[in-house]
Amino acid sequence: MKILLIIIFITVLGAFSYFFFLGYKSQTGYARGLVDSKLSRCPASPNCISSEYPEDKLHFTEPLDISDYKFEKLSQAIIDAINNTGGKPASIEKNYISATYTSNIFRYVDDFEIRIDSNSNLLHIRSASRVGHSDLGANLKRIQQFKNQFKSSKLL
Length: 156
Hints:
Layout: H1 2-25, E1 34-35, E2 38-39, E3 48-50, E4 64-65, H2 71-84, E5 88-92, E6 96-102, E7 109-117, E8 122-129, H3 138-151
Antiparallel strand pairs: 1-2, 3-8, 4-8, 5-6, 6-7, 7-8
């Protein structure tokens, strides 16, 4: 019985160590940025959500319609929504904004990217984990929180 408890303890300790290592590993890196004027495609793993490629059903979410927003106030509304949902803006350009979100327990860093498509009046969003295979739905939840926060902004 004592040996079984020791084996269980070592296994749990190993699992926690591995998760902390992944959190540490995710501290380095950066958002992928725009590729051919679009957000990067999601990898095959289920830890990424994007509105840029509707044919990718596993990773797709609807983009936001921004036709009612004043473009001179749009970037500030995006940054405010990122800040209000726990993100930290990293790069702010004319039609692209990136941010990072860090989980509380294991300190995983995820990348969050926005592309402002002024031709189509759409806000394309991509949220992806830097490490691991699954995100347990964290990226989709983050995008939904961002959308709700952005829609409730008073910068119309």
